[in-house]
């Protein structure tokens, strides 16, 4: 008898070219999700590298590591990339991968549109960065791109505008896709009152995107038109006004910052219950809080313009302070989920707890700045820089890191190293506080943001040096995280379907899931279907 | 974390303030601190307690009680922060009302103009303008102590921000939208100020110095400044009917030029400031009473030549209208 | 244990067939915010001057735009009739003529407004009204053009008989079209009527 070696088609090693083509043409939400993550982490490495340059330049007074031109480009690109190409796409990446899984769907509602949303991202990002290749250099008007300054800029500014238009389109398409997916593709039994919080958060984020990003598009078009088409929207000598920019930009800009945090709230609301072994305290309260923040976030944009003399400060102060209330509800729900739990300190949980500890500081900073009289003293100083990083790094990014450790086994079938994970956390956590806490004092001492250098007589030197050293520690921490990722990817696939005793449907399928997502879905009768099934199976074993 | 926060509590981190309004803000900082600190302590405290107290012990596999929360707790979660927010708003709104209230009877009146990248300050009644030189000497302005001063802020090119940390106050200078505020400095001293709104290349160097001085000393200083800025006696040579001005780092290369009277003359402007606009305007005096000529703007880097109509003999004042007294000089027509 | 299989999910997902309509509704919402930004600028400029439009603008003639706007309003009616036709019989012959009528009305609208531009005596950079006028009208015209393309796609489907099976593309296109019509009316009121 002759046997011909026939490998099953599925395991045959396929040429690299074919595998690459697979990824390039895929419409599978899981592959697209992973591409989102890879793309955004690459931009993160670039933007983080820029941050290291910024800190190096500011380490001592009158430093000359970066010329003022370069410094201005660097912080502009750092902020732009972090906000538009790192945090939001990272959250969308997790959303892509896990929203369909969490609601028991086969894919997103519009898989091909989904692929398009992804591919627009690197295009937009590289367009922005390509400013470096022009003679005038990259855009250097800050991520807020204030006019009339932005009208003076060179070609780099146009590339910045075009790139952001592309990125904005990507977000908009993605958001419509998320909303339709969540509203229409939920598995039988998955009523809205059983939808996991991360999915709720992605839904809210998407609503923010649909209603706010068009304002950014309009703003960018106005800038472009004033630069090249001869319109006078922003020119006071012809009846235009700077206010037209500020108002439209911040109408987008404030909802934007909640787009950057809601996903992280969702992540933390998934992880804390799982690793405390308890249900989320006040599931419905969390959803109510999310929706309240969503609504309020459209009413507060003027708090970025207190010092311009163009808005009614006390009105915006009221709405801004009010937003602390629903945010506080989230905090109390997390804390009372921990209360009397049995907490397992896996890296994912440690990052999530780090999130709670740090985001509250950023939030409270916000309360100072929300008071106009106080803001007159600290606006545009390093106090704001401290706030930005406590909410975006201590908040959004810690949440994203937690998600990475939490969902990595699901996405790859491999655990991310536990020991290195803890080292990654502690280096980041300590470095983060050493870097950014002193910035509060720098701000109160009168150090303006976005300055390329400062004189020795200012007395800001020592705290800046501390901040710079802290930043290097963060850098080392991130490299440890990178190494952890790299090492973990070469380990064998050992992760089971449900490595953490999870609650939500993504844990009901294999790790990684098959292309069709689920071989079988458990019945959905509560917001914790996977736990229900685990208990049912255990009960069945006991009785048999 | 609590240790990191300690210096905040111990004070010495927010400035004392050198005016009544600043003292108000100083107090507001602590009001907010005392309202926020319990929130901070509560969150971090409970978190820390849970981490220590509720860790899963090895071998303990009994699941914790599955408590999903209750309405009462949720109501409390909303009510607690709301109460604090209301308190914050009461203090906050009253402080901002004080700080934003303009003195009805200011004694001194100033117009402060921001431009890339320098400030100029015009003392309206005294008809004196002082300014600095970009990247060389920052603006030095004096203010009489205990005198209510009204400041009108203007910008000629992009947005800037007048910020004196010791005043615990800043305000944007917005093109096309003058902003007015009043201050009454109460402490004699020399204070650092700086543009806080990012305004391009040399934003980091757009500094100024505010000297709060006793009133007599202020009068002396004003007198001295108005001497120094008196229209020049016309000491420079005429160069026929054409001359060149070079603008670089927001300064002209000459502060006096001379031409012959009664014939049109040509001026060549070389602007070396990349992306920055300059122009050339001729007035009767630094008070800008009458304008004889205004050239089109020259956006750097570029060189352009314009023809100025004939002027009668006399001493004139010229400036770049965008950068005012920071780019000014005397035009002698003989 | 009884669970849900992929096949069951697939069947269940057919419920998601009207996704296109929902997506279009969301898209239209975002478009409304987009134009809202320009109307916001309009409002702030309007409230800041005593005379509107500011400066000595020779305001555009209202004759052609009035006709164009009436035609646009009529196109909403024909669109509604097309929808009704599709609902009544699912037969394309009740739908296609009305769709064609809508397309013709749309083209007439674009032609009239564009022709009206010829009679304008101001440039885009003269003042805020002028800038708003050119920007908003050309953006709106672009949206009408987009609507024409959308309608053409629906017509193509109607030809191939697909419309008889699924009405979603038609309904989605109509939502977009209604938005464009409302936009046209608002623009008429703000840029032509109010500038008298
Ligand atoms: C993730 C992003 C994110 C988030 C979530 C927030 C959240 C908040 N932000 Fe922040 N903000 C930014 C990102 C973010 N911000 C950025 C990037 C800028 C700078 C933009 C630029 O470059 O200029 C900025 C700037 C900024 C300003 C302008 C400052 C200035 O330029 O002068 C202000 C002013 O009011 C402000 C306020 C707030 C407030 C009140 C909140 C609130 O949502 C915070 C609410 C949370 C809490 C308060 C903590 C938890 C609550 C409790 C435990 C309950 C009890 C608490 C109380 C009753 C106080 N932010
Ligand atoms: C999410 C947002 C985010 C994040 C994470 C960061 C991260 C950092 N930021 Fe950033 N920052 C902003 C958002 C963010 N920033 C914004 C919006 C502004 C305002 C911009 C403006 O004014 O216009 C700003 C401005 C800003 C300033 C003020 C500049 C100025 O006003 O002059 C400073 C100064 O110190 C600074 C420092 C840092 C530092 C040291 C980090 C570090 O923590 C960075 C650490 C990260 C790394 C070192 C990356 C290393 C990565 C790898 C090694 C790869 C590993 C691989 C994998 C994990 C896959 N930032
Ligand atoms: Cu002027 Cu910064
Ligand atoms: Cu905000």
The level 1 CATH classification of the largest domain in chain A is: Mainly Alpha
Would you count the extended β strands of chain A for me?
0
Structural class based on helices, strands and sheet pairing of chain C:
mainly alpha
Q: What portion of residues of chain C belong to β-strands?
A: under 5%
Helix/strand order of chain C: HHHHHH
State the distance separating the first and last CA atoms of chain C.
Answer: 73 Å
Q: Which spans of chain C have pLDDT < 50 for at least 5 consecutive residues?
A: none
Q: What is the total domain count of chain A?
A: 4
CATH classification, class level of chain C: Mainly Alpha
Description:
The complex is a heterotrimer of chains A (544), B (334) and C (196). Chain A has 544 residues and is mostly helical. Chain A has four domains: 167 residues, Up-down Bundle (Cytochrome C Oxidase, Chain A); 147 residues; 119 residues, no CATH class; 43 residues, no CATH class. Chain A is built from 17 helices and no strands. In chain B, strand 11 and strand 12 form a beta hairpin. In chain B, helix 2 packs antiparallel against helix 3. About 1% of the residues of chain B have low confidence. Chain C is mostly helical. Chain C has one domain: Four Helix Bundle (Hemerythrin (Met), subunit A), CATH 1.20.120.80. Helix content of chain C is 76%, strand content 0%. The chains are: A mainly alpha (544), B alpha+beta (334), C mainly alpha (196). Chains in contact: A-B, A-C. The interface between A and C is large, with 53 and 47 residues. One heme-A binds next to helix 2, helix 3, helix 14 and helix 16 of chain A.
Summarize the structure.
The complex is a heterotrimer of chains A (544), B (334) and C (196). By secondary structure, chain A is mainly α.
Q: Which features characterize this protein?
A:
heterotrimer; B: 334 residues; alpha+beta; Immunoglobulin-like; 21 strands; 26% helix; elongated; C: 196 residues; mainly alpha; Four Helix Bundle (Hemerythrin (Met), subunit A); binds heme-A; binds dinuclear copper ion; binds copper (II) ion
């Amino acid at each position: 008898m002759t046997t011909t070696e026939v490998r099953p088609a599925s395991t045959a090693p396929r040429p690299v070219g074919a595998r690459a083509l697979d990824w390039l043409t895929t419409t599978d939400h899981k592959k697209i999700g992973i591409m989102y993550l890879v793309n955004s982490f690459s931009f993160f490495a670039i933007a983080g590298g820029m941050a290291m340059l910024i800190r190096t330049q500011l380490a001592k007074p009158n430093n000359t590591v970066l010329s003022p031109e370069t410094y201005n480009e660097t912080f502009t690109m750092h902020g732009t990339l972090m906000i538009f190409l790192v945090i939001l796409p990272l959250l969308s990446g997790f959303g892509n991968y896990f929203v369909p899984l969490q609601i028991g769907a086969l894919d997103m509602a519009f898989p091909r549109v989904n692929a398009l949303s992804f591919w627009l991202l690197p295009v937009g990002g590289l367009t922005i960065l390509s400013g470096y290749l022009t003679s005038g250099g990259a855009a250097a008007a800050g991520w807020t791109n204030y006019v009339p300054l932005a009208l003076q800029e060179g070609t780099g500014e146009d590339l910045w505008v075009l790139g952001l238009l592309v990125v904005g389109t990507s977000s908009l398409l993605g958001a419509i896709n998320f909303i339709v997916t969540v509203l229409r593709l939920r598995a039988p039994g998955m009523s809205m009152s059983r939808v996991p919080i991360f999915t709720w958060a992605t839904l809210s984020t998407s609503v923010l995107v649909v209603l706010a990003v068009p304002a950014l598009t309009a703003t960018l078009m106005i800038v472009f038109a004033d630069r090249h088409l001869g319109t006078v929207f922003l020119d006071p000598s012809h009846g235009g006004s700077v206010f037209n920019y500020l108002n439209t930009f911040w109408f987008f800009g404030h909802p934007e910052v909640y787009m950057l945090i809601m996903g992280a709230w969702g992540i933390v609301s998934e992880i804390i219950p799982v690793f405390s072994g308890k249900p989320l305290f006040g599931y419905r309260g969390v959803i109510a809080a999310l929706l309240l923040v969503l609504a309020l976030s459209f009413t507060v944009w003027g708090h970025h313009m207190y010092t311009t003399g163009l808005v009614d400060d006390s009105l915006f102060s009221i709405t801004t302070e009010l937003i602390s209330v629903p945010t506080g509800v989230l905090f109390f729900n997390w804390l009372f989920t921990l209360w009397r739990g049995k907490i397992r300190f896996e890296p994912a949980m440690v990052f999530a707890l780090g999130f709670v500890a740090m985001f509250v500081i950023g939030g409270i900073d916000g309360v100072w700045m929300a008071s106009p009289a106080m803001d007159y003293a600290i606006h545009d100083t390093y106090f704001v820089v401290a706030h930005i990083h406590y909410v975006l790094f201590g908040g959004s990014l810690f949440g994203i890191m937690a998600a990475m450790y939490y969902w990595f086994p699901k996405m790859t079938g491999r655990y991310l190293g536990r020991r290195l994970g803890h080292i990654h956390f502690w280096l980041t956590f300590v470095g983060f506080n050493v870097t950014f806490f002193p910035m509060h004092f720098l701000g109160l001492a009168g150090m303006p943001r976005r300055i390329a250098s400062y004189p020795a007589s200012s007395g800001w030197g020592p705290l800046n040096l501390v901040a710079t050293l802290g930043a290097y520690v963060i850098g080392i921490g991130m490299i440890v995280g990178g190494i952890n990722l790299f090492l973990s990817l070469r380990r064998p696939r050992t992760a089971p379907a449900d490595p953490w005793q999870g609650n939500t449907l993504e844990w009901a399928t294999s790790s990684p899931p098959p292309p069709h997502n689920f071989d079988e879905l458990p019945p959905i009768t509560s917001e914790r279907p996977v736990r229900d099934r685990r208990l049912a199976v255990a009960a069945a074993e006991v009785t048999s | 974390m609590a240790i990191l926060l300690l210096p905040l509590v111990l004070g010495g981190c927010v400035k004392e303030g050198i005016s009544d309004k600043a003292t108000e803000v100083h107090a507001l900082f602590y009001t907010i601190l005392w309202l926020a600190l319990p929130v901070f302590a509560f969150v971090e405290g409970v978190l820390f307690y849970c981490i220590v107290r509720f860790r899963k012990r090895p071998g303990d596999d009994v699941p914790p009680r599955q408590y999903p929360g209750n309405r009462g707790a949720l109501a409390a979660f909303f009510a607690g922060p709301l109460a604090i927010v209301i308190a914050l708003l009461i203090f906050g709104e009253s402080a901002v009302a004080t700080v934003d209230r303009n003195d009805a009877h200011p004694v001194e009146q100033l117009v402060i103009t921001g431009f890339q990248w320098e400030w100029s300050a015009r003392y309206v009644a005294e008809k004196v303008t002082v300014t600095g030189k970009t990247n060389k000497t920052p603006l030095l302005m004096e203010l009489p102590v205990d005198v209510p001063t009204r400041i009108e802020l203007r910008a000629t090119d992009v947005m800037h921000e007048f910020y004196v940390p010791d005043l615990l106050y800043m305000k944007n200078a917005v093109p096309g939208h003058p902003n007015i505020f009043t201050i009454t400095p109460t402490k004699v001293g020399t204070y650092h100020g700086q543009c806080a709104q990012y305004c391009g290349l040399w934003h980091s160097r757009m500094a100024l110095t505010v000297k709060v001085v006793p009133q007599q000393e202020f009068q002396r200083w004003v007198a001295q400044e108005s001497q120094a800025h008196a229209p020049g006696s016309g000491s420079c040579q005429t160069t026929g009917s054409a001359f060149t001005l070079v603008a670089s780092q927001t300064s002209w290369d000459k502060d006096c030029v001379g031409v012959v009277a009664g014939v049109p003359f040509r001026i060549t402007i070389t602007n070396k400031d990349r992306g920055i606009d300059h122009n050339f305007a001729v007035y009767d005096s630094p008070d800008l009473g009458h304008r004889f000529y205004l050239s089109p703007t020259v956006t750097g880097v570029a060189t352009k030549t314009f023809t100025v109509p004939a002027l009668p003999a006399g001493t004139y004042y010229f400036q770049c209208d965008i950068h005012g007294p920071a780019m000014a000089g005397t035009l002698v027509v003989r | 244990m009884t669970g849900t299989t992929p096949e069951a999910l697939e069947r269940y997902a057919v419920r998601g067939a009207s996704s296109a309509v929902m997506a279009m509704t969301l898209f239209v919402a975002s478009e409304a915010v987009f134009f809202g930004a320009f109307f916001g600028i309009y409002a702030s400029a309007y409230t800041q001057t005593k005379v509107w439009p500011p400066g000595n603008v020779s305001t555009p003639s209202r004759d052609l735009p009035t006709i164009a706007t009436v035609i646009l309003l009529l196109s909403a009616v024909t669109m509604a009739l097309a929808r009704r036709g599709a609902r009544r019989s699912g037969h394309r012959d009740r739908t296609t003529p009305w769709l064609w009528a809508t397309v013709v009305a749309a083209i007439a609208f674009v032609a009239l407004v564009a022709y009206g531009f010829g009679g304008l005596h101001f440039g885009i950079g003269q003042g805020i009204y002028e800038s708003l006028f050119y920007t908003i009208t050309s953006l709106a015209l672009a949206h009408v053009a987009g609507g024409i393309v959308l309608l053409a796609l629906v017509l193509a489907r109607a030809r191939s008989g697909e419309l008889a099976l699924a009405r979603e593309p038609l309904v989605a296109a109509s939502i977009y079209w209604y938005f464009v019509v409302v936009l046209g009316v608002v623009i008429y009121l703000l840029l032509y009527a109010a500038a008298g």
